[in-house]
Amino acid sequence: MKKKLAIWIAAIILAIFSLSFIFIIALPSITKLTLNDWLEEQGLSDQIDNIDINLFTGEVRLTSLKPEVSQKQNLAIGNLQAKIHLRDLWRKKITIESISLSDFYIDIKQTPSGIYSIGDIKTGNNDQVPNRKLSNSTGSSPWTFSIDKLELNNIKTCYSSPVNSPQNTHDVCLMLEGFKLNKASGYLIERINQNGVFVSKASFKLKNAKLYDNKNNNEIMKVGELKADKITVDKHNKINIPKLDVSGVSLLKRDNIKPEVEKDTYATTVKLITLSNVNIINLNDYFVESISVNGLQSQLVREKSGQLELVKKIQEYVTSTKQTSKSTAKKVTKAPRLRIGEVHTKDNSRITIVDHAVIPIFREQISNLNLKLSEIDTHETSKGSPIALSFTTGEHGNVVLNGSVALFAKRSTASLKGTIKSLNAANYTGHAFNFIEHHIKRGIMNANLNIKVDKGLHDTEIKLDLHKFYIEEGTESANKKYIKELGVPLPRALSMLREKDDSIKLTLSVKGDTKDPKFSWAYSVNNMIADAIKNSIVNYYTNVSFKITILKAIFKSVKSLSFESVIYKPLEVNLDNTKKELLNDLAKLLNDRPHVELAICGYATQEDRIKLYPDTVNKDISIISDDENGEEYKPSDIKKVTPKLSPQQITRLNELALQRQTILKNYLVQEKGIESKRLIPCNPKYSLTDTGEPRVEFSF
After folding, report:
1. What values do phi and psi take at 9, rounded to 5?
2. Beta carbons of 486 and 538 less than 8 angstroms apart
3. DSSP conformation class of 560
4. Is 617 helix (H, G, I), strand (E, B) or coil?
5. Is the CB of residue 65 less than 8 Å from the CB of residue 47?
6. Of 11, 39, 148, 330, which residue is most buried, by most CB within 10 angstroms?
7. Residues facing 253 on adjacent strands
8. 189-198, 397-406, 562-571: which has the highest mean pLDDT?
9. CA distance 157 to 176
10. pTM
């Protein structure tokens, strides 16, 4: 009996081992058949080469999964291999020694109705996904897990979705040469109000990733390497990354560049970006303690149309969220919150600016770029973020700005103070012409900036110090405009402000609302320059020792300025000490403004005529005719009236006026060193109507 029982037990054990052996042997084939059947149910053809499963070692390998639909391949796995410690499952522990996936491709599509297709395997839209019910178990111990190594090689995934219409789609692809995740361990938690994964001390490295537009194969972004260590995810799903390094970043590949002129093939490249203490609180709340940008190289190119190349590229890739299908319409949700403690660049960063919209084409390089931006919060739209910016432009130019900027305000808001030093103004001649219709010959620009913008309202002051600054003669229309505005062409107006050290100082004031339809930068710049010149002329010429008065209550042009005249006694031509003192003050003004030119004009008046020709006095005549001028004068209009003078008498009076202005000019030229060409004499002419004192007048 015992022998018979032993035989039965042996037979049962043998049968179990046999069935287990058969199951183990058949498991790969069964798995392959089951997977093929499922793929066929999804409308996909069967193209799995092989599946290997080793329950003794815990190894699983799948080779060449390439299902197809309509002769188009949207999912492919070259090789999938995993090694799992199966025995640890009995201890509620998932131990993955390694997972390796290579030559993987998947196509993800979204239909206008919101249905997703992943490798042609259709899923429901988000609205159809039921809410997950939480487990009520509270006393069970959590599962632990560990992953020693996860490795991905040669991965590609493409995503497409409709934009505004089914015919217009957004289609991008991501290619990944390599990805490694090392030594991730922690707990799987499943409790009431406490779902998630706790992970500690994980690290990963991503290598050679590329995001591109699948329609025209234009590259959007490339990343050489991305790596992070000691990543943790707590039981509340909060992710912390102490340090994240991103190197070899290239953004937006440029089209139609000329290699002989432009070397940079990407709009922006960055050698290294380091993010410190990255915290993902949830999918709508992110915090980064600091971001360091090292080796920034950027191209800012404006096309002939006036559009920025970078903006144009972004507009090509960024899609509208508006959908035509009612079924995909979603409620407007609050944008995720991003907080950044500080962003700063290293001084090896540079930006190249090329502007094709001006003539000549503008090219300038900004180097030694140092930017520090702090306290950034996308939800605090009215809060200003402290900013410190400095850079070198051209060979010697330097710009420094400090203050605050409300980065996310609906309307521009900023308060900045700074300086511009040694800027080569001639490089900006194309932009200058667009505003003032004059090209810049040469000049160095220095400036003190006080920029204030409150919700689009400008109250900005710019104090310019232009050294050896000269502009070309303007167009006919420009000259007419400035003569109307200033009384003289713009180059002449600037020469009136040119100091002895060949500098011009102007204060520009920008006031206005950028939202106002009447506000125009071109119009504002012209007004700023005209007002600045007027104010500078008034401030200087009404405060010099040589008396200059404003003829009108409000200064409207250079012609509104009246210089003090040099007064003479009748028939007097020589200079006494009083006249010389007055001319000395005028000489000082001319030396301080070495480019100012004055018209000088002598006058002989009725007082000279009475002294020179007393017999011509006739007080009883009521109306006297001047045959030469064809004019009539009333006795009440003139101090002394006279009958018609002989040509010889008039010539003598004209010579008297000429003699006065000649002696005066000779004194300024010979005694005070004023260039003769700066004193432009008139052709003096005796006038019957001049009842003033004998004099010499000056004017611009």
Report:
1. -65, -45
2. no
3. G
4. coil
5. yes
6. 39
7. 266
8. 397-406
9. 9
10. 0.72
CB 613 within 8 A of CB 649: yes
CB atoms within 10 A of CB 92: 13
Contact between 328 and 115 under an 8 Å Cβ cutoff? The reply is: no
User: What are the DSSP calls for 592-608, one per residue?
Assistant: HSTT--EEEEEE--HHH
Taking the CB of residue 89, how many other CB atoms lie within 10 A of it?
13
Beta-strand (E) ranges in 11-132?
A: 48-54, 59-65, 68-69, 72-73, 75-84, 93-110, 116-118, 121-123
Sequence-ordered list of residues with C-beta below 8 angstroms from that of 385, at least 6 positions apart, any chain: 373, 374, 375, 376, 404, 405, 406, 407
Residue 579 backbone dihedrals phi, psi, to 5 degrees: -65, -40
> Is the model's pLDDT at 621 over the cut of 50?
no
One-letter identity of residue 384: G
Count other C-beta atoms under 10 Å from residue 553's C-beta. Answer: 7
C-alpha 273: how far from chain center: 20
621 phi and psi angles, rounded to 5 deg:
-75, 140
Q: How many residues does the chain have?
A: 700
Helices (H), 496-627: 521-541, 577-592, 606-612
Cα distance between residue 122 and residue 110, in whole Å: 10
* pLDDT at residue 327, as a whole number: 43
Q: Which amino acid is at 258?
A: K
Q: What is the pLDDT of residue 341?
A: 95
CA distance linking residue 536 with residue 464, whole number of Å: 11
Residue of 246, 146, 127, 243 lying closest to 187 (CA atoms): 146
Most confident by average pLDDT, 113-122, 139-148, 587-596, 666-675: 666-675
Does residue 67 have a cis peptide bond before it, meaning omega lies within 30 degrees of 0? Answer: no
pLDDT 10s digits, 408-446: 888 889 999 999 999 999 999 998 888 888 899 999 999
Contacts (Cβ under 8 Å, ≥6 apart) of 549: 542, 561, 562, 564
Q: Are 246 and 273 in contact (CB under 8 A)?
A: yes
Number of H helices, E strands in the chain: 9, 32
Q: Which CB contacts under 8 angstroms, 24+ apart, belong to 551-558?
A: 556/487, 557/485, 557/486, 557/487, 557/488, 558/486, 558/487, 558/488, 558/493, 558/496, 558/700
**Is residue 24 within 8 Å of residue 55, measured between CB atoms?**
yes
All structural domains of the chain? 411-546 (no CATH), 564-699 (3.30.1330.60)
- Strand, helix or coil for residue 309: helix
**Orientation angle between helical segments 476-486 and 521-541, nearest 10 degrees:** 50
